[in-house]
Amino acid sequence: MATCLHAPLALLPSGWERDVAVSVADDGTIAAVHAGRARGDAQDAGGTLVPAMPNLHSHAFQRAVAGRSGQAGRGGEDSFWTWRQAMYGFVGRLDPDACEAIAAQAYAEMAKAGYGAVAEFHYVHHDPDGRPYADRAEMSARVLAAAQAAGTPLTLLPVYYAHGGFGGVPPTPAQRRFVMSTGAFATLVEALLPLAAAQRAIVGVAPHSLRAVAPDELDRVVAASPAGSPVHIHVAEQIAEVDGCLAWSGARPVEWLLGHCAVDARWCLVHATHMEDRETHALAASGAVAGLAPTTEADLGDGVFPGVAYAAQGGRWGVGSDSNTIVDPFAELRQLEYSQRLAHRRRNLMHGAGLSTGAAMWLAAARSGAQACGRKAGAIEVGAQADLVVLDRDEAALAGHGDTVLDAAIFGPCRAPVRHTMLRGLWVVRDGHHRDGDRIFARYRRTIERLAKAEP
Ligand code: NGQ
Ligand code: ZN
258: domain CATH number? Predict the structure, then answer.
């Protein structure tokens, strides 16, 4: 049955509007939006309405590694690369059941935190010995089942991974669970299409990185993508990666990618942290989305994305929870803006015309995040998926705020700004509780305790 919601304040593509009525059709899309309407017999939304934030980059299984990488490596030397070793250690113990349980917990947490659709960059395909499961799509099917359980609109990005470094370096034993031929990859993509369609999930492709994928493979992986679907790739996250790319090709990673692939609006370049001005300009002009994961990038010591220069060129960007060490779109936006403030020694840098920084960032990230997920979503407008967040009007940090409510939620003393979340027209989170959160958490707890016991 169609729903009509009414909110005293809502963030529409045009900015803040008062007394907004939103009709949601049975198919989970927005059928009508009207500002300046009396409530009538519409349902009271329960607070300010904003679009749910598409999460453009997740490795759901890494949720189980959160809080387990707090010890510096030997000699006090710790980095992205030692964290990766620790993370691979966990990969070695991940079985299909755990994959599903952990992903469901991560997706339920995302909905509670205000995320809508999720793009899952999924690369653990095989068993711990690197042998394909009897069903080659086993692990992908577990990710789909987790999204189904959590009510998450999923964009599944099976990852192609082949090498341990630039120039076709062979993969390490720890990477053998990720590796397959381009032929097997194309078969996997085909096999996923009907599974995904059954729950209205989208299938794209993800060549892991220029480190892990050779140029001819990159072409074949993109050719294997369903027409018009998203193409995501990690790029220029670490200085060692930039140096490795220069040594291999004479070009920087973003420069190489833009020079060798027809990068357009289908593409999402994840991280793109290290760019020179000409790369920043060229990426902005391509129409691709820069997939930022500011809290993960901070956690891993990646560097600072050139946000000010990129936004000045009209570059599109969105955010993702990536390692799921933090699952909170408000925190991602805060980290992004603060990184720019620290670098430029100024304030309110990721701003937008006529809106406060919080609202401008939310709108920009939601729109481009939806593009990266390959969905019509991320905006309260007719035809978009009804992925909506109701901010908590009983949260002290938000009290008394109108047009500044997102600034209070992002930059203020607020831990839990989200009250309700609607995904594809259904209330998945009510009063901070996920509709299936107890069952999902019970399974997660059993799983994580089992895996912790098995820790070497
Ligand atoms: C990943 N994560 O694939 O999970 C990567 C680490 C790599 C981030 N880059 C592995 N944040 O890039 O080689
Ligand atoms: Zn990633």
Answer: 3.20.20.140
